């Protein structure tokens, strides 16, 4: 829908009566444009879930969360695009071993980077140091998430400006080895499990390997799924099956997972909703990615996602009016596909956000 009709619909979504119901941005990056961060109190969005991605913005996210504690939920993590900057000193056999900057980048990047290219890259940071720093942030902010984390098979490192000639391309041929991305993701997910925090997860062109990575962490913790026969016999008759929902201490994975700007094929929804999975999985959608890039399967996917697992986000890098407009657009899209009126959509995704960030116990305490 375009033209005046679309503008009227957007105006309806932006009506104060709807914003007052509570609109939550499940994933955004306003610290990328710090000069606009002071506009956060002007935004009609009730809470921004702000992501960190690399060394430069972990403390920025913390600063914004300290400044606007009633409007921000911080999230601390290392994005897969920047995982090459981390040296994995936590893998088996790495204790006490040192590697040079050149050795590190040649081992984690594809395509044999040149010495000149490597010299433009920063000194790699030990993964153990980053995990320790993230633990400190999570302890400071009891409601903080782990994110943005994940896997990306499509990303290529940019060519440094100093190496770009008139005939060179902006993107280099170098990608980040998937095994290295998986290790960085794994250690962050183990930390999320240790701290009992949800995670916001990025996945691009790596949907199968992303699921397999989580499956390896879930192994041994899968939920017991009762057969239809035992279900008919009553809730207390398990024929000796153990209750896998018992609290047995920290798990090596987060209790709740948000697959942000979800763009996997529709079949992956069923895969991620397997009842044996011991984490609660949510699916978040943005106008910038899921609509802006013309993802043709969006309507089909929105129709398949369970009502209580649906989130919306802006995924924008600036805390401007654009955040409100993009959230309005994705709320309108969800409303059209699900045949909900906008207030129902706002209430539904708002309750889901509270469940994702704080857990269902907190949601029930609030009477939701």
TrEMBL record:
It comes from the Eukaryota. Pfam families: TatD_DNase. PANTHER family: CUT9-INTERACTING PROTEIN SCN1 (PTHR47345:SF1). InterPro entries: Metal_Hydrolase, Metallo-hydrolase/TatD-type, TatD-like. One of its GO terms (molecular function) is hydrolase activity, acting on ester bonds. It comes from Arthrobotrys musiformis. This is Metallo-dependent hydrolase. Residues 225-256 are annotated as: Disordered.
């Amino acid at each position: 829908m375009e033209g005046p009709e679309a503008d009227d619909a957007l105006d309806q979504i932006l009506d104060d009566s709807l914003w007052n119901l509570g609109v939550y941005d499940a994933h955004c990056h306003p610290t990328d444009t710090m000069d606009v961060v002071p506009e956060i109190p002007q935004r009609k969005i009730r809470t921004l879930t702000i992501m960190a991605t690399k060394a430069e913005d972990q403390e920025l996210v913390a600063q914004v969360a300290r400044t606007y504690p009633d409007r921000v939920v911080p999230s601390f993590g290392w994005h897969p695009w920047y995982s090459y900057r981390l040296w994995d000193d936590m893998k088996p056999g790495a204790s006490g071993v040192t590697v040079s900057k050149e050795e590190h980048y040649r081992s984690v990047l594809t395509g044999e980077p040149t010495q000149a290219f490597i010299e433009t890259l920063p000194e790699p940071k030990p993964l153990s140091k980053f995990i320790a720093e993230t633990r400190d942030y999570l302890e400071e902010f009891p409601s903080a998430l782990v994110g943005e984390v994940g896997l990306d098979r499509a990303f290529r490192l940019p060519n440094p400006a100093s190496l770009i000639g008139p005939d060179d391309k902006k993107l280099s041929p170098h990608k980040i080895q998937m095994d290295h991305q998986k290790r960085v993701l794994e250690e962050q997910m183990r930390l999320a499990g240790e701290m009992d925090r949800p995670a916001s997860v990025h996945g691009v062109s790596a949907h199968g390997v992303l699921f397999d990575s989580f499956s390896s962490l879930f192994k041994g913790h899968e939920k017991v799924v009762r057969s239809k026969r035992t279900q008919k016999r009553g809730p207390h008759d398990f024929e000796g099956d153990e209750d896998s929902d018992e609290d047995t201490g920290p798990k090596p994975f987060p209790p709740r997972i948000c697959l942000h700007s979800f763009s996997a094929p529709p079949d992956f929804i069923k895969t991620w909703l397997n009842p044996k999975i011991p984490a609660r999985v949510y699916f978040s959608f943005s106008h910038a990615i899921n609509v802006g890039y013309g993802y043709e399967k969006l309507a089909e996917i929105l129709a398949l996602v369970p009502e209580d697992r649906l989130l919306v986000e802006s995924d924008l890098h600036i805390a401007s009016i654009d955040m409100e407009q993009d959230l309005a657009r994705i709320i309108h899209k969800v409303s059209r596909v699900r045949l909900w009126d906008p207030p129902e959509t706002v209430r539904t995704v708002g309750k889901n956000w509270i469940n994702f960030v704080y857990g269902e116990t907190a949601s029930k305490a609030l009477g939701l």
